[in-house]
Amino acid sequence: MSFLLQRRDWGLRCLALGAGLSMGAGGIALAASAPLTIVVPYAAGGPLDKSARILAEGAQARLGPVQVQNRPGAGGNQGAAAVAKAPASENLLLMGAVATHAVNPWLTPDFPYDPIRDFKPLVLVARTPNVLVMSAARAEALGIRSTSDLVGYLKAHPGELVFGSGGNGSIGHIAGEMLKALTNTRMTHQPFAGAGPALKALQEGSVALMFDNLASSLPLIRAGKLRALGVTSLGPDDSLPDVPSINSEVPGFHVSTWFGLFAPASLPDARAQEYATAFSAAMRAPNAARQLQAMGLEPQDMELGAFGDFVLSEYKKYEFLVKAIKIRLQ
């Protein structure tokens, strides 16, 4: 009799393995799904990547293992599309941003995903202004200490200066075109394959200025290598209290970078709430908050529906800006 029971148990285990199931003390159970993975649609080392790793570490006590995977390409579109189309079994989240969910959709006719319908917003991680920067040596040589000084120089030397950005249609590109439009000045745009190469070109002198996100430029500003002329928020930023907003010198100027966690739209509401709660708590843990603040970022209080409303408003805002400034991908 025991031999027959052993044969029956062995047979069930074979069936379980063939069907992707597992046997435990309680019998047959579904095999564990893939570990929860945050996809960062940009190269490693940037603010989104660093923030994702901070949150992944902090949320593991509540959610179990959380991985971070970089899938750069197409200005963030490649990684975002992979999450939008992923089956539930892949267990993917996206560290999306203003580019992937508000700007890029208006730049490409056949966009690979719907940033509103294909995702469920979970939690806004950070909102940070961009900062208009020049190399400190170049700014000193040209006598430029503020946005007004820069505008005066551009009017006296139309087309002479080159501004760099992380690519056509990037926030840095949009900010530069907006400055030109609002001040009726001319400068040449030089796109790069990401903000990192653009920042390197700025330091090497092949471009004169750029709009970079504050988290990336802040260490170089504090080290005296870059001069901050103005921030793109409506008022000064706490990380650079002595640097005025560009809006105070060029009325109507306002753009900012933001990023947050998104799930595929198919994620059940209860699971979305669980993730939002876990990652919000991870952001506010003292050690995580210190790491984010060191990058010039502040934890946010926007989750789920409120975050979704914010994303929709940004989507509509950049539709207007991209069309008004007439930005085209080259």
Task: Please explain how this structure is put together.
The protein is of the alpha/beta class. The protein folds into two domains: 36-128 and 257-325, D-Maltodextrin-Binding Protein, domain 2 (3-Layer(aba) Sandwich), CATH 3.40.190.150; 129-248, Periplasmic binding protein-like II (D-Maltodextrin-Binding Protein, domain 2, 3-Layer(aba) Sandwich). The chain has twelve helices and eleven strands. The strands form two sheets. Strands 3, 4, 5, 6, 7, 8, 9, 10 and 11 form a nine-stranded mixed beta sheet that branches. Strands 1-2 form a two-stranded antiparallel ribbon. Strand 1 and strand 2 form a beta hairpin. Helix 2 crosses helix 10 (269-284). It is globular.
The N- and C-terminal alpha carbons lie at a distance of 76 Å
Count of β-strands:
11
CATH superfamily of the largest domain: Bordetella uptake gene, domain 1
Kindly report the CATH topology of the largest domain. Answer: D-Maltodextrin-Binding Protein, domain 2
The biggest sheet, with number of strands, parallel, antiparallel or mixed sense and barrel status, is: 9 strands, mixed
> How big a fraction of the residues is strand?
15-25%
- pLDDT < 50 runs, ≥5 residues: 1-32
Helix content: 40-55%
H/E element order: HEEEHEHEHEHHEHEHEHEEHHH
Please count the helical segments: 12
Number of domains: 2
Shape field: globular
Q: What is the C-level CATH assignment of the largest domain?
A: Alpha Beta
Give me the Rg, rounded: 24 Å
Please sum up the structure shown.
The chain has 330 residues and is α/β, with parallel strands linked by helices. It has helices spanning 2-18, 47-63, 77-84, 98-103, 136-142, 147-156, 171-183, 195-204, 214-222, 269-284, 286-294, 304-325; strands spanning 21-24, 27-30, 36-40, 66-70, 92-97, 119-135, 162-165, 188-191, 209-213, 226-231, 256-264.
